[in-house]
């Protein structure tokens, strides 16, 4: 359920016609719905109601500071994977004590800044990282709260590029080695073990892999407690999938996920953290684009739009499906035409959809790519010297540009010509 619906023949973003936003900021543009962001955050809150918990939004999925403020003000914590994301969360008014720091390559400089600014915990992913964090904490006279991310070796049954919990993946430490790694943690100065962390992948459409992973974490909790470690917090990661196409099997709901979490770890008396990104931000955004040309190939009709793979890379990178809908609602019974929807970039990979049935569209028509809130604007680049797409936030009847489109001068002036040229 999201707040991008047709009303009077027009696609609306909450109570604002998408055409009005496109006319005001130009295309392509990203539009986010505050109500949809909050609704999906609340679904997790409801799913974990009655447990001691913190829902930490995965900032990597959508990191605009205005979006982070919407969620932070609603009570979300944040999961960050770089000091840049940490700074964004802080700029959105989120206290350091509500921010968890994940990622396999945290640098000493990043550790230092997070420790000085305040941090809820570091999710440590390796022994060398643990050693480095210990040294940094000691040098600052601080104690770093940590969990260790364990790799439970379960198959998340998702796209290979976004699976993270199998033993061949680069993440976490093998769960079989957890005891020795926790023993090391306990022996190092400047560290305080607070719990265990696990994250097995993204866009999971089945609860079973989560269940297997959480069961292993529950077992490990007992083992580590018996060895004298204080395990009071379990970070269960993110990864719950969303429906990208309206007609496919819907992934499990947060309420079902929450029930499973309680079954598997509810008896342990631990504080529960989760790190959802996509489920909160994914269906909260659309990418609006204008048709530039309709080109008839020998066998195919190409809809050439002004958005491209640099703006939304998911189809090119993961063969991802995004629903594409016209901004003006097609008349009932309008004939469909199969289009290859492509961007202007000089690569065949710049294809959003092949033979996609759409109503007949003419140059100047607007289309919206749905489910474009997560891993969309954040993964954009300026390839082909295309400016980053502006972002707009809607709340009820109002909308605001929350990141403007850079000018070409701004883009070009970031480059400098050395004096010897
Ligand atoms: N926690 C950790 C440690 C993660 O690595 C991730 C995502 C999350 C939480 C949030 O997962 P989510 O709830 O959003 O599934 N670019 C890819 C997705 C990459 C996910 C990376 N890690 C895509 O567009 O599908």
From TrEMBL:
Reactions catalysed, as given in the entry: meso-2,6-diaminopimelate + H(+) = L-lysine + CO2
EC class: lyase
Record: residues binding pyridoxal 5'-phosphate: 239, 275-278, 375
Residues that hold substrate according to the record: 278, 314, 318, 347, 375
Ranges annotated as spanning the membrane: none
Lyase among keywords: yes
Occurrences of domain Orn/DAP/Arg decarboxylase 2 N-terminal (ranges): 36-281
Domain of life of the native organism: Bacteria
Cofactor(s) in the UniProt record: pyridoxal 5'-phosphate
Record key words, sorted: Amino-acid biosynthesis, Decarboxylase, Lyase, Lysine biosynthesis, Pyridoxal phosphate
Active site feature: 346 (proton donor)
GO MF entry, a single one: diaminopimelate decarboxylase activity
Residue ranges occupied by any Orn/DAP/Arg decarboxylase 2 C-terminal domain in the UniProt entry: 30-373
GO BP field: lysine biosynthetic process via diaminopimelate
Its EC number(s): 4.1.1.20
Matching SUPFAM superfamilies: Alanine racemase C-terminal domain-like, PLP-binding barrel
Modified residues (N6-(pyridoxal phosphate)lysine): 60
Annotated pathway: Amino-acid biosynthesis; L-lysine biosynthesis via DAP pathway; L-lysine from DL-2,6-diaminopimelate: step 1/1
Entry annotated with the keyword Transmembrane helix: no
Role of this protein: Specifically catalyzes the decarboxylation of meso-diaminopimelate (meso-DAP) to L-lysine.
Assembly information from the UniProt record: Homodimer.
Protein family: Belongs to the Orn/Lys/Arg decarboxylase class-II family. LysA subfamily.
Protein name (Swiss-Prot/TrEMBL): Diaminopimelate decarboxylase
Gene source species: Thalassorhabdomicrobium marinisediminis
Taxonomic classification: Bacteria, Pseudomonadati, Pseudomonadota, Alphaproteobacteria, Rhodobacterales
């Amino acid at each position: 359920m999201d707040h991008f619906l047709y009303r009077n023949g027009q696609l609306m973003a909450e109570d604002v016609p998408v055409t009005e936003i496109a006319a005001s900021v130009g295309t392509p543009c990203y539009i986010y719905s505050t109500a949809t962001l909050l609704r999906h955050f609340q679904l997790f809150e409801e799913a974990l109601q009655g447990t001691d918990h913190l829902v930490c939004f995965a900032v990597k999925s959508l990191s605009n500071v205005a979006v982070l403020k919407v969620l932070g003000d609603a009570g979300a914590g944040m999961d960050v994977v770089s000091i840049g994301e940490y700074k964004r969360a802080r700029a959105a008014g989120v206290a350091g004590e509500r921010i968890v720091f994940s990622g396999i390559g945290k640098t000493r400089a990043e550790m230092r800044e997070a420790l000085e600014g305040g941090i809820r915990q570091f999710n440590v992913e390796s022994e060398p990282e643990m050693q480095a964090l210990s040294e940094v904490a000691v040098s600052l006279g601080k104690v770093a709260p940590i969990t260790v991310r364990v790799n439970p070796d379960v198959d998340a049954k998702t796209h290979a590029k976004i699976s993270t919990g199998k033993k061949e993946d680069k993440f976490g430490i093998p769960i079989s080695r957890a005891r020795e790694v926790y023993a090391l943690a306990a022996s190092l100065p400047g560290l305080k073990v607070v719990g265990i962390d696990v994250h097995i992948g993204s866009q999971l459409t089945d609860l079973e892999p989560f269940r297997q992973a959480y069961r292993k974490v529950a077992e490990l909790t007992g083992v580590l407690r018996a060895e004298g470690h204080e395990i009071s917090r379990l970070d269960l990661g993110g990864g719950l999938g969303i429906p990208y196409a309206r007609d496919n099997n819907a992934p499990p709901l947060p309420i079902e996920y929450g029930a499973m979490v309680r079954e598997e770890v509810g008896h342990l008396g631990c504080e529960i953290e989760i790190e959802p990104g996509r489920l909160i931000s994914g269906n909260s955004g659309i990418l609006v684009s204008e048709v530039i040309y309709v080109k008839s190939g020998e066998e195919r009709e190409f809809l050439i739009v002004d958005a491209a793979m640099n703006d939304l890379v998911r189809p090119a990178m993961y063969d991802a499906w995004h629903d594409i809908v016209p901004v003006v609602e097609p008349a009932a019974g309008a004939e469909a035409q199969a289009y290859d929807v492509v961007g202007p970039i000089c690569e065949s990979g710049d294809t959003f959809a092949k033979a996609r049935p759409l109503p007949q569209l003419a140059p100047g028509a607007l289309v919206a790519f749905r489910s474009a809130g997560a891993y969309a604007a954040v993964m954009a680049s300026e390839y082909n010297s295309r400016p980053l797409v502006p972002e707009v936030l809607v709340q009820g009847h109002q909308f605001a540009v929350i990141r403007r489109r850079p000018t070409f001068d701004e883009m070009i002036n970031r480059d400098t010509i050395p004096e010897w040229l």
